[in-house]
Amino acid sequence: MAVNKASPIPPWASVKIEPKRQFKFILTIGDIPAWVVTRCDRPNPNFDGTVNHEFLGHQFKFPGKLKWSDVNVTLVEPIDPDVSGQVLDAVIKAGYNPPSTWTADNEGWRTTFSKERFVTGNFGNISIKVLDSDGNEVETWTLFNSFVSDVNYSALEYSGNNINTVTLKFSYDYATVNITEINQN
């Protein structure tokens, strides 16, 4: 009679293995509460083409400059807290002067946006935290010197019943990622 020896389970077949899931994340963006976030891109590095170098009949290729793609974030618009108002306040703090602030002597007409005012006075560095099923952070992205480069409010319509949203596009200088090692064996 043959003895049935149990072979070790390969790592990919372990019940402890867990993939990262799209819906398990928390976005930290200034004073905006995390529960209003419905969608968020992760940072994407890409190279600005390739640089060619020719030498003795051969062509050698090198990567171009590293650029970070903008990150889009979609938020639902609750009545309280007023996320739409917070977004517009961020634009005003960055240097926008509405025409209603002008005086009869045409003072206040200058609109001078400042990256510094956008970054320090508003949302600061943005963190995107990917979670496991126990709520532990397994991946944390940080966007440095981020500022709003586009605001897009959802359309209103009488025939619809969807929740209003606002999509923000963030430009930033660079991003870092911290991967937390969790033993899944």
Reconstruct the topology from this structure.
Blueprint: E1 25-28, E2 37-40, E3 45-47, E4 50-55, E5 58-63, E6 66-68, E7 71-76, H1 83-93, H2 115-123, E8 126-131, E9 137-144, E10 147-153, E11 165-171, E12 174-179
Antiparallel strand pairs: 1-8, 2-7, 3-6, 4-5, 7-11, 8-9, 9-12, 10-11
Write structural notes for this entry.
The structure is a single chain. This protein is mainly β. It has a domain of 103 residues: Roll (Pnp Oxidase, Chain A), CATH 2.30.110.20. Helix content is 11%, strand content 36%. The chain is built from two helices and twelve strands. The strands form four sheets. It has a four-stranded antiparallel sheet, with no helix packed on it. A four-stranded antiparallel sheet has the order 2-7-11-10. A hairpin with a 5-residue loop joins strand 8 and strand 9. It starts with 24 loop residues before the first strand and ends in a 6-residue tail after the last strand.
Using the CA coordinates, give the radius of gyration: 24 Å
Overall residue-averaged pLDDT value: 84
**Relative helix content:** 10-25%
Tally of separate helices: 2
User: What would CATH call the architecture of the domain at 20-42 and 68-89 and 122-179?
Assistant: Roll
CATH superfamily of the domain at 20-42 and 68-89 and 122-179: Hcp1-like
Distance between the termini: 33 Å
Quick summary of this structure?
The chain is mainly β. It has a domain at 20-42 and 68-89 and 122-179: Hcp1-like (Pnp Oxidase, Chain A), CATH 2.30.110.20.
What are the defining features of this structure?
185 residues, mainly beta, 4-stranded antiparallel sheet, 2 helices, 11% helix, 36% strand
